[in-house]
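Mods, move this if it's the wrong board.
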Amino acid sequence: MSTLTAPVEANTRVLINKSLENLGWIFDVKNPKRNVFLEQAKTKKELKLLNGEKPDYVLYVKDERGEDKAIMVIEAKRPGKRIDTALEQGIRYAKALDAPIVFATDGLFCKSYHTKFDRTPILNGEEVDEFLRETLAIKYLAHWEVNTVSEKVRIDRKALINIFDEANNMLRGDGLRAGIERFGEFANILFLKLISENERIKNESGKQTAFDDSCHWDIIKQIPKTGRLDYINQVYGKLNALYKTEIFTPLTIRNEEILKEIMDKLDPLTLTDVESDVKGDAFEYFLKESAATKNDLGEYFTPRHIVKTMVKLVNPQIGEKVYDPFCGTGGFLIESFRHIWNTMPRNDKTIEMLKKETVFGNEITNTARITKMNMILAGDGHSNIHTKDSLAEPIDGSKGDGYDVVITNMPYSQKTKYGNLYDMPSNNGDSICVQHCMKAINSTAENGRMALVVPEGFLFRKDLSKTRELLLKNCDLQSVISLPQGVFLPYTGVKTNIIYATKVNQKLKASQKRKDFWYFDVKSDGYTLDNHRRKLDSGSDLDKYQEYRKLDDDQRQDMLDVGFEVIPLNKVNENSHILVGSRYREHAPITSSYEYVELKDVSDIIAGQSPSGEHYNDNGDGVPFYQGNANFGDVYIKSPTKWTRQTTKMAIPGDVLLSVRAPVGAVNICNDSVCIGRGLMAIRSRGGVLNPKYLFFILRAAEEKLQQFSSGSTFAAINKSDVERFKIPLPTLNVQQNIVDELDSYQQIINGARALARNYKPIIPKNITGEVKALGDIAVFRPSKDEVKSLARDTLVSFVPMADMNAHKISFAAKEEKPISEVHNGFTYFKDGDVLLAKITPCFENGKSGIARNLKNGIGFGSTEYIVIRANLDVVYPEWIYYHINSPEFLKQGNENMTGTAGQQRIDINFVKGYSIVVPSLEEQHRVLNEIKTEYALIEPSRQIIEVFTRKMQTKINEIWGEQID
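Not the wrong board. Structure tokens:
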């Protein structure tokens, strides 16, 4: 290998070289098959094209004529430089060499680019963020998007989840309990299918294994059903012996017919692809998708992109021990295993060390068995996974035991009976989980480090102050990454953070420790923050963090520019060790012409307190009770849904009510004496200083400002001291009254226009005559997808999430487009002109329905929670159906015909099909619909009035605050 002169960190070179070698790229200058050239191109012609410049790495493949073709350029990030700078440089080299793929990297974090299509290359639906092996790189010569998972495998994996749902019902009939018991039974059977597919791929590639052919799926399925259960249980004994484990336990299914039916459904599926780099990803897909549909399993799955970010952050190495005390289905340990495998020197010793002495994990539930299965499929490392409560067995790293790296997503808000085993006894699980992780780090480790996902409450709760103090004492806190609320949906809405600390359990002098830590607020993780968690095109803030994860001082200004914040630890120690970065944020100077005062100087703040449960009633007995902002109207609060005889904290007429829990910042005015719960605070203006109506208008425009002070675990919240310190502009009382008069006049205009727009409901006249027909007789329900099966798989069609449907808005246009191959199966199909009706509560109750318009290629797909109604255009207009299914009569009867459990009820499709309406002639329908269209045209100016005067109000309030409106 040539001597390198470029100013690239040696460690970065080592990481790049090892990763490429492990992918099969050849560096050896004596090898005639060499295809990696460092700081040079291969031919004189190419050197001339580069004009004396030297790419860090140029990788070659053989083209269709057998000639060497530059396919990939890799540029290493220089110390103190942006990775984007390296990428731009690499793109320039690659275009000179006509190479399609460019990587810029610091050895672990990679950005990629395709020079032929001027965009990031895609692999299996995700942006390419790791180097490519040669056979895979070749696929990018003509395309920017590559799928190594075949279409059949993708379709079969989606079908797998439906089979799991069917099996779940069958297993319920066989007496198995819901949740992990049925889930584990199905996983046991699925493992036999997946391990057999893996072994087939190994055999086809010439690899010899110790796998016993009698354990193969194809042999098992030939066993008669009367003896198959016993045979499979014998197979599990052989697998336990092969993998030196006891994870495979006899099936508890009693009905052999159910076993056969489940296997028959799984048999035609192909779930593992020979082209895929990761052979355990089919099981991982199953874990993710099944957890997404079963809430009681969701705690076991952390999103893959969060896992990868954290693993790259701690960067585990061969020879280190990695521990996850709450490992669930093993996501962190599997990714750590893969990470080390990709970056380590491979020989018999290191491979054996990786498999048996590197990854360790505990899981309190029987899910540990599934973790072991997942690790066997992913490559091994299962032998140190145990079913146990980690908190019951603390590891004392100060005695030389323990691990080099702890990485985990800990359980939130639990109680524990083992708190007395720890340095700071407590029954609070959040405290003991963090203490367990710290104690588990070997104090003699060269750099014991940990990355923990913790609930937001851990960062600020008063009862955890001493635990945070212990953390700061026993670790060097490097960074806190604030994740947006919704990252862990659909499993939980808890807001979370990642704590990254180094030098754990080392007794450091004060002079050796950091004086501050980095706080990074992730606004977007690259996915929508709802239950669907769809991929966004706007990128992820996690990439910014990954680029600067080394937290190098020489990039301090760049880090500040992209959103990192420096939090001084002396301020933290003076403020109950609170680690929420926004508490220490300096705000821009105020430019208002009015004096700013703190609320506590001009008002009294009354924090709400909820009465005990037995005092509530819904029959008007006692005092109206309000807990949050659900009853807020345009100005005054609406009628309550609860009353109480126990008056804890009272608000009186004129008090401004502030919502202080999820969502924070909404305000209203109290026009009666009411009892307020802990979701509200009352701000009572002091006479002669502050006009209550002025305060209302000012605070209504300050919602985002107030939210900057909020924090929370399950719910975002703001505390009383922050409200008291909140500053507002304060003109004289005369000026306040003038401002109120002006804003009130705008508000009255807005209220009138809103009332007109809100109260208008298009109605089909009752005196219309015609034949009475059921909807099922004049429309097709759930149209067949057969007509789209002949379309090319890359045909773009519209995708309509439920969130894009607006209640009581007749038409909608899709905001997303997807290839038909991604949506053909598993989604509801519709065309331009079809009527969509939301069938699940509360979407149905809120009138979520509409007529599809302007779909890509006239075709749309969406949630399975739509009922699609395709009107017979020879008989009825789609609009005629739409207005009838939005009528009060239909919605009332529909609510009476719901099925399912509370909170997840659905409208009965047979009710909708059987709902009868008057169907006059098409000419009469056209006349009535035109009248409604004319009425809509009269109402539309009201909406414009709302926009105009809302903007006038905002302009005036911004002027008071001393801000400019865009």
